[in-house]
Amino acid sequence: MKELDQLTKGTTTVGILADKGVVLAADRRAVMGNLIAGKRVKKIFRVHDYIGVTTAGSVADAQKIVDLMRAEARLYELRHNRMISARALANMISHVLHSSLKAFRPYLVQLIVGGFNGDDPALYNLDPSGSIIEEDYTATGSGSPTAYGVLEAEYEEGMSLDDAIEVAARAVKSALERDTGTGEGVTVVTITREEGYRELPEEEVEKLLS
User: Which of the chain's termini has less CB crowding within 10 Å, N or C?
Assistant: First the structure.
């Protein structure tokens, strides 16, 4: 499908599983063909205190999915009197994406869901058809082949949160240097039991990359 090809036209997002949580990272550039349409675009979203989502693809579709999942997470809490897990949220998104295919209007997005299942950190990659793959590390977008070069070389099972932050940031930075659809700096988010969802200050990320 021609529209799905747009998923590879811009963006780099990365997710890494660490010993105490999850690290998500992304660039800030939005492109429309050869035009840089935005330089401060948000690509990592807080869905819940302990769950974050990265987005690649259609901005409008991504915003719709994020808004829907925020509402579903809140409804889940009210119904069950407990927080929704990352796995349950990924399943909800999967159903929405798969149903949209049958309506011949697919959501043109690829998502990374990071958060907690109980006390255990977890990371999931979802494609536009709704398939779910649980990962230790993953990347999406046009810069993902470059980012995977860093992730494959430097990821270690059970790595510390600080090490995962550094690797995730450098994976996106490598895409900034080689992929025209990726640019304008790096955003990094951590999700831990102690602090929940936390976006690192921009100066902290810049210092890390320097």
Answer: C
Compute the Cα dihedral for 125, 126, 131, 132 and give only its sign: positive
Which residue, 100, 73, 95, 99, is CA-closest to 85? 73
Catalytic residues: 11
Per-residue pLDDT of the chain (210 residues; tens, 9 = 90+): 444 444 445 789 999 999 999 999 998 877 776 777 667 788 999 999 999 999 998 888 999 999 999 999 999 999 999 999 999 999 999 999 988 876 667 888 999 999 999 999 999 999 999 999 999 999 998 889 999 999 999 999 999 999 999 999 999 999 888 877 776 789 999 999 999 999 999 889 888 887
pTM > 0.85: yes or no: yes
Cα angle 187, 67, 201; round to 5: 20
| Four-residue CA torsion sign, 12, 137, 105, 97 | negative
Residue written as tokens 């499908």?
A: 1
Type of residue numbered 22: V
Residue range(s) defining the domain that contains residue 25: 3-209
Q: Looking at the 3D structure of the chain, how many domains does it have?
A: 1
CATH number at residue 118: 3.60.20.10
